[in-house]
Amino acid sequence: PAPQHPFALLDLDTLIDDEEKAIRDVVRQYVDDRIKPEVGDWFETGSIPAKELAQEMGALGLLGMHLEGYGCAGTSATAYGLACLELEAGDSGIRSLVSVQGSLAMYAIHAFGSEEQKTEWLPRMAAGEAIGCFGLTEPDFGSNPSGMRTAAKRDGDDWVLNGTKMWITNGTVADVAVVWAQTDGGIRGFVVPTSTPGFTAREIHKKLSLRASVTAELILEDVRLPASAVLPDVKGLRGPLSCLNEARFGIAFGTIGAARDCLETAISYSIDREQFDRPIAGFQLTQKKLADMALELDKGYLLALHLGRLKDKHVIRPEQISVGKLNNAREALAIARECRSILGGNGITLEYPIIRHMNNLESVFTYEGTNEMHTLVVGEALTGLAAYRG
Ligand code: FAD
């Protein structure tokens, strides 16, 4: 019999409708034509044409695509998830660019911004003419952002921001930063044009993961903003955490894309590669690896689709998104490592996508809430006991 694609094993295409398939196919084509041929080089050199890519993906309607109005495409959450899946089949860094733009920066402005902030930024961000970043993490506060030191103080009507943000995706290419800071009234979000005096972004070098993605440190030194810069409609950690839920939802899908690309590569390689006078795919040990990975891939995809349907019905809960992020990032990483072994020596070069996905997934395992933090969210949901603090 002819080899079947892992998704065909369970006829998983029957779970998505024609419009979702059409969106998926457009993104897959873009990734095949534009991203896959070049991303190995971008990863190797640690540089991407971020502005160009943002404009191209804006023209395709991929930026803030599940948001309504202000030039956004207004698709279903599931369609957005499928787009993330296809983008991450290209590279987790490209999906990160889109996630940070749409689910973090644009979502924050869309959900909590003033009418003036929305009309100023969202149409340009949807078109990819302006890039956004999202500054929550600090050098000393990652998993526990409630301790953040970045502070915004009033000076007359103005706000003055001081502090440092760390690991900020899109940082040096951003036109606008959504920055979270402590105020006398708790944590608030600020819309900061990156051209404001006192704002500096420094790229983080020597990364061995997400190399086809810009990661930066943001330094805010007496950044003076008008009263209108604060996001008016949210106070406290609920603001950044609801943005993170949006992005984590996309990661539950995206990681399946990276894993799918690894498994497709490993299956075709193992069919072509001969040792001991037969394809290595014909050995039972290889088949066990492939079968186990196809099971996890398909289960992860089913989980992501289920979350998509819950989100489209507006009934999804944060711990459900944690289940998706925790499971799919973990299993995608395990799949990438196993696929790497099937390629033998060839598995360690950028000639094949697997080790790039594998290294990228180490970041995805950690960002947007670490594997451990999501485990604790699920643990709390199951027991009613929060175990974050001693
Ligand atoms: P820590 O919080 O110091 O954690 C270290 C380890 O301790 C982890 O294993 C963690 O799970 C564990 N740990 C911590 N607390 C507990 C506990 N209570 N119980 C058990 N274990 C615990 N942030 C942004 O704001 N914007 C971005 O755009 C962004 N992009 C990123 C891009 C990349 C490539 C990377 C690597 C990170 C990015 N981040 C971003 C930051 C990311 O969200 C943080 O790295 C993450 O939240 C973890 O924080 P930390 O690195 O400080 O690790």
Summary tags:
390 residues, alpha+beta, four-stranded antiparallel β-sheet, three-stranded mixed β-sheet, 10 helices, 9 strands, globular, binds flavin-adenine dinucleotide
* Global geometry: globular
Number of helices: 10
**Mean pLDDT over all positions:** 97
Q: Low-confidence parts lasting 5 or more residues at pLDDT below 50?
A: none
Strands in their spatial order, largest beta sheet: 2-3-7-6
Cα end-to-end separation: 56 Å
Structural class: alpha+beta
Q: How can the largest sheet be summarized?
A: 4 strands, antiparallel
Number of strands: 9
Give a written overview of the molecule.
With 390 residues, the protein is of the alpha+beta class. 51% of the residues lie in helices and 15% in strands. The protein contains 10 helices and 9 strands. It has helices spanning 18-45, 50-59, 77-90, 92-112, 115-126, 238-272, 284-312, 318-342, 354-366, 371-383; strands at 132-135, 151-155, 158-169, 176-183, 186-193, 199-203, 215-225, 274-275, 278-279. The strands form 3 sheets. A 4-stranded antiparallel sheet has the order 2-3-7-6, with helices on one face. Strands 1-4-5 form a 3-stranded mixed sheet, covered by helices on one side. A two-stranded antiparallel sheet has the order 8-9. A hairpin with a 2-residue loop joins β2 and β3 (158-169). α3 runs antiparallel to α4 (92-112). It starts with 17 loop residues before the first helix and ends in a 7-residue tail after the last helix. The model has no long low-confidence stretch (mean pLDDT 97). Bound molecules: flavin-adenine dinucleotide. Residues 100, 134-137, 142-143, 167-169, 210, 215, 363, 366-368, 370, 372-373, 388 line the site of flavin-adenine dinucleotide.
